[in-house]
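Tip: read the tokens left to right.
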């Protein structure tokens, strides 16, 4: 794990021998506010993985303009019944109690969602210790009440759609009528489809783990919403052509949205990408050298920590006690601002958008670090 001038400030290893629970917390930087980042629950989550994710959260939160620093947590979860999972989450929460609110605020991540966040805050009796809680889970607040805003409301996909619209405008591409391909059709991809379709874009190719579908005329909204509501795979859609998964990357589109797994664009398929704009909805959809190669080929892209910040902006909205409507307004404002700043500067300097975004994010963190008297 590489240290730098920004952090990490805390690296904790948690071990509960009675339960067999092991976990990690990395608080990377708190100059802008308490470290914010989700709890990843996988069998092989490591300290190094959590550190990389924590540092990314520092830059994501900085560029989003919200008063959070960067952090991330991980629990090694081998799988099992909810009764055991609850014990793991609550043991982990109690172990972190001395740092909660002042240095760390939890949130959902891989295999942790709204119920896990409710378990977390119930264990420490601190309602604000985690965000992404159920919408019906509320507390009294200044004469009214604060309620959870689960990520299932679709804040990340909503933000991705608005990031795509802003970036498209910057490069002179009208979003209405733009041809779009979405790889990954979970929470992020489905909401990105919904909002882009409402903007007049034409999503012509969609892929998930079961395969890829193509429709030159786009996917019929009513039929697609029914498919999503029933949680069926995209290959169950009737009225589109099923294409080989590898052919998805060669579909001629204006906007490509990778919303699936890490390194989904790689050495084997990068040459097929023909989009004018890539909006990185998933984390690390390609290596930085491939981003740079595509940019030099004339492809604009919006880096992941810019495009997919809707979830953490939603987290701040819940923490501040906003309504879902106000949350969506905040996501749109902050995502629009960050995307415009990065893409316009990239075009102006003819520079890869990732270093542009990192420079803007670091400037804000460095300014906050100079301002504060002490780290601890």
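Filled-in amino acids:
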């Amino acid at each position: 794990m590489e240290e730098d001038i920004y952090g990490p400030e805390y690296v904790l290893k948690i071990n509960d021998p009675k339960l067999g629970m092991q976990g990690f917390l990395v608080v990377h930087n708190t100059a802008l506010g308490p470290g914010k980042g989700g709890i990843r629950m996988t069998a092989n989550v490591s300290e190094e993985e959590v550190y990389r994710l924590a540092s990314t959260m520092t830059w994501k939160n900085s560029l989003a303009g919200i008063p959070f620093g960067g952090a991330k947590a991980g629990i090694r979860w081998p799988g099992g019944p909810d009764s055991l999972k609850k014990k793991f989450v609550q043991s982990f929460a109690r172990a972190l109690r001395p740092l909660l609110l002042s240095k760390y605020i939890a949130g959902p991540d891989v295999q942790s969602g709204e119920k896990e966040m409710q378990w977390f805050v119930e264990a420490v009796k601190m309602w604000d210790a985690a965000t992404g809680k159920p919408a019906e889970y509320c507390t009294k607040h200044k004469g009214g009440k604060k309620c959870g805003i689960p990520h299932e409301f679709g804040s990340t996909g909503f933000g991705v759609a608005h990031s795509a619209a802003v970036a498209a405008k910057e490069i002179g591409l009208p979003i209405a009528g733009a041809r779009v391909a979405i790889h990954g059709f979970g929470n992020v991809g489905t909401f990105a489809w919904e909002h882009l379709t409402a903007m007049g874009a034409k999503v012509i190719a969609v892929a998930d783990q079961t395969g890829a579908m193509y429709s030159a005329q786009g996917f019929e909204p009513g039929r697609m919403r029914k498919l999503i509501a029933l949680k069926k795979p995209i290959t169950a859609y009737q009225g589109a052509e099923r294409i080989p998964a590898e052919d998805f990357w060669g579909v001629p589109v204006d906007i490509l949205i990778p919303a699936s797994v890490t390194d989904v664009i790689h050495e084997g398929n990068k040459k097929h990408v023909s989009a004018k704009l890539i909006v990185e909805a998933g984390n690390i959809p390609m290596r930085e050298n491939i981003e740079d190669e595509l940019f030099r080929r004339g492809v604009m892209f919006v880096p992941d920590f810019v495009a997919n910040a809707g979830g953490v902006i939603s987290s701040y909205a819940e923490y501040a006690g906003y309504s879902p409507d106000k949350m969506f307004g905040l996501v749109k404002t902050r995502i629009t601002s960050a995307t415009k700043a990065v893409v316009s500067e990239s075009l102006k300097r003819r520079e890869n958008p990732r270093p542009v975004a990192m420079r803007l994010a670091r400037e804000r963190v460095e300014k906050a670090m100079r301002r504060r008297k002490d780290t601890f």
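The chain has eleven helices and 15 strands. Residues 324-349 form the longest helix (26 residues).
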